[in-house]
UniProtKB/TrEMBL annotation:
GO process annotations (BP): cell wall macromolecule catabolic process; peptidoglycan catabolic process
Taxonomic source organism: Mesorhizobium amorphae CCNWGS0123
Keyword terms of this UniProt record: Hydrolase, Signal
TM helices/strands, residue ranges: none
Family annotation (Pfam families): Glyco_hydro_25
Cleaved signal peptide residues: 1-27
Protein's recorded name: Glycoside hydrolase family protein
InterPro entries linked to this entry: GH, Glyco_hydro_25
SUPFAM superfamilies: (Trans)glycosidases
One Gene Ontology MF term: lysozyme activity
CDD domains attached to this UniProt entry: GH25_muramidase
Family affiliation: Belongs to the glycosyl hydrolase 25 family.
Length: 388
């Protein structure tokens, strides 16, 4: 019995639809990927988030835990000023000490539960080198622990400037030998991507993307980043008592939840990241700038670094190519005659006749010029009549 043609066409259409749905499922990392049970999740928290570790461990999709470490510059250890200033200074130092103790305790518990560990630094205006030192001294990152730079926005009056953020990254690399992940929102990520020739480090860090929408394919800065390392999709901004994209057991509604574009085993294998995207690290070599002997003996100075070599910028490449094109074009131009007979009229025909003369005596040149046909005087070859 033969199958009717219209049934064959219907079966073919159904098969095509099934293939399309399968491809869409595979390409859904930009559209609610947390609904895919195969995608790994990561929690990030700060000191005021309460955690019930026993309940948290029941969610087997949670692979990692990233905790806030340092915040801007370290508080002063020695306090001075009036009574109010001294009390505030001591309170800040006490908070700093308690926060660090909590940080270390959470690290021990998380690792005991088999979770991958990470730390982030909330970057604020101020010395970027000292902020990087504060972060490393606070977090004490091990080789298998993720580091992240938290860049909340592109307003240098509230947060670290992008230029200082690049120096922060350099200092972390100098001390640890690895790079942090860049945490930022969609607007700032797009600005960095649009100006990637200026921000050659920030634009090449693995991206921890913060956007609380179900779909980000239209907004994601493709072209610079082809994908995200982590996507922070749930936070206090879109998670409440009655609705939340994803709830993790043992955590409050305001906890930040992130999804990875891979399964748990793949994320564990890539964890800590630490490299740049498509850029070798050779050009990051730097040397300390020399200081004066007096400053060195005084002991009050900050070591700064200068780049040994950096990749050419777009403007530099345009300049070099333009110079080479000019040289290539000049090779086809007529050579400039520097020594010619001084005559009242000396056109192109005169020049050709003079050039063909084997002997350069005055009599022979006069004879050649006299025999030249139809001499034409041009502005480009006319004799300069000035006497020297």
């Amino acid at each position: 019995m033969k199958t009717p043609a219209h049934l064959l066409r219907r079966s073919a259409l159904a098969l095509a639809a099934m293939v399309a749905l399968t491809l869409a499922a595979k390409a859904s990392d930009f559209s609610e990927p947390w609904k895919n049970a195969d995608r790994a999740l990561v929690i990030d928290a700060y000191e005021y988030n309460s955690i019930d570790w026993g309940q948290l461990a029941t969610d087997k999709r949670v692979v990692g835990f990233i905790n806030k470490a340092s915040d801007g510059l370290p508080p002063p250890y020695f306090c001075s000023g009036d009574e109010t200033e001294v009390r505030l200074c001591k309170a800040l130092w006490k908070r700093h000490a308690v926060t660090r103790e909590l940080f270390q305790t959470r690290k021990v518990v998380a690792k005991a539960l088999g979770l991958k560990w990470g730390a982030y630094h909330l970057a604020r205006p101020g010395n970027p080198v000292e902020q990087a030192n504060n972060f490393i001294d606070f977090a004490e990152p091990a080789p298998d622990e993720l580091m992240a730079l938290d860049l909340e926005g592109n307003d240098p009056t509230q947060w670290i400037s992008l230029e200082d953020a690049e120096e922060f990254v350099r200092q972390v690399h100098r001390r640890v030998g690895r790079f942090p992940v860049l945490y930022t929102n969609g607007k700032t990520a797009q600005y960095i991507a649009d100006n990637r020739y200026q921000y050659r480090l920030l634009s090449r860090l693995p991206l921890w993307y913060a956007r609380y929408k179900p779909d980000i394919d239209v907004h994601f800065p493709m072209g610079n980043w082809q994908g995200y390392a982590l996507w922070q999709f749930s936070a206090q901004a879109n998670c409440g008592r009655f609705h939340c994209p994803y709830r993790v057991a043992g955590t409050p509604n305001d906890i930040d939840v992130n999804v990875a574009p891979m399964n748990g085993d793949q994320l564990r294998a890539q964890w800590a990241f630490g490299g740049l995207i498509d850029v070798p690290t050779d050009y990051l070599a730097s040397i300390p700038v020399p200081i004066s002997r007096a400053d060195g003996l005084a002991g009050k100075f900050t070591i700064t670094y200068a780049d040994v070599a950096t990749p050419p910028t777009f403007e530099e490449m345009v300049s070099v190519l333009g110079a080479r094109w000019q040289k290539f074009r000049d090779g086809f131009r007529m050579p400039v005659v520097k020594t010619v007979p001084r005559r009242p009229r000396f056109g192109i025909a005169d020049y050709v006749a003079w050039k063909r003369t084997e002997q350069r005596s005055t009599a022979q040149i006069e004879a050649a010029l006299a025999a030249a046909a139809d001499p034409v005087s041009t502005a480009s070859t006319e004799l300069d009549r000035r006497r020297r």
